[in-house]
Design goal:
A hairpin with a 2-residue loop joins strand 6 and strand 7. The longest helix is centred in the middle third of the chain and has 16 residues. The N and C termini lie far apart (about 50 Å). With about 230 residues, the chain is an alpha+beta fold. It has eleven helices and eleven strands. The strands form five sheets. A three-stranded antiparallel sheet has the order 1-3-2.
Length: about 230
């Protein structure tokens, strides 16, 4: 028997179309109920419960109970990172689900990738942070520089609080639609949260789309000019 991680088991869990649709729905960062996930997957609640049990058993989900309802979210950033990578791989090989209308353009411009900003604006922010010297690579590792620390603090993000978290501060995440990187990790989460706190951006509760106000997009482009 071969030794090491059993990637075939995890791949099989993700590879089922119904389960893949459920996991994609959870990339919005919002916890969903069994019935909501059943609707996303196009299956009955009973079938959805069976799928969710398998995903939970495989360590891909975090179930929580509140009142009469049981909610599910992705287990952690690592799961979201793998899913976004698979989306990029699928897009690169031409495996795209058909979408029509303005929602497609809106998703590509700005969307939630689990809990951070993705899409055209997400990659613009990442590239701009690199260009301004706020983020640098050390091999494959991404680091926040001294100028980056000052930049983040001036924006109103508590860097000391972020560093108390166990999760990685800065993490590169391949954007499936742009085929370039956007910023993940606790800093990526903090940026999106700050944009929302300043009323620059708002999440659509039924999709992964992030809409920026006129003032918000102006401030965003001032802070993160296109490279």
């Amino acid at each position: 028997m071969k030794e090491g991680p059993d990637i075939a088991h995890v791949a099989a869990l993700i590879g089922d179309p119904a389960r893949a649709n459920m996991l994609t729905a959870l990339m919005g960062g919002k916890a969903l109920t069994v019935s909501e996930l059943a609707e996303e997957a196009g299956v009955t609640i009973q079938t959805a419960s069976s799928h969710l049990s398998k995903l939970d058993g495989g360590g891909l989900l975090r179930p929580r109970k509140q009142g009469r309802h049981k909610y599910f979210s992705l287990a952690n950033d690592d799961v979201a990172h793998v899913l976004e990578g698979l989306m990029g791989l699928a897009a690169g090989s031409g495996r795209l689900r058909k979408r029509t209308g303005p929602k497609d353009a809106a998703l590509r411009q700005a969307r939630v990738c689990y809990n951070h900003l993705a899409g055209e604006l997400g990659t613009q922010m990442f590239d701009s942070l690199i260009m301004q010297g706020h983020l640098v690579f050390d091999g494959n590792d991404l680091h926040l520089t001294r100028s980056g620390q000052a930049f983040v603090t001036e924006l109103g993000i508590d860097l000391a609080e972020l560093r108390k978290n166990k999760s990685t501060l800065c993490r590169e995440c391949l954007d499936w639609s742009e085929r370039r990187s956007h910023l993940a990790g606790s800093l990526g989460r903090a940026f999106l949260s700050r944009f929302e706190g300043l009323s620059w951006a708002k999440r659509d509760q039924t999709t992964r789309v992030i809409s920026f106000s006129a003032n918000g997009i102006a401030e965003f482009k001032r802070l993160f000019p296109a490279v």
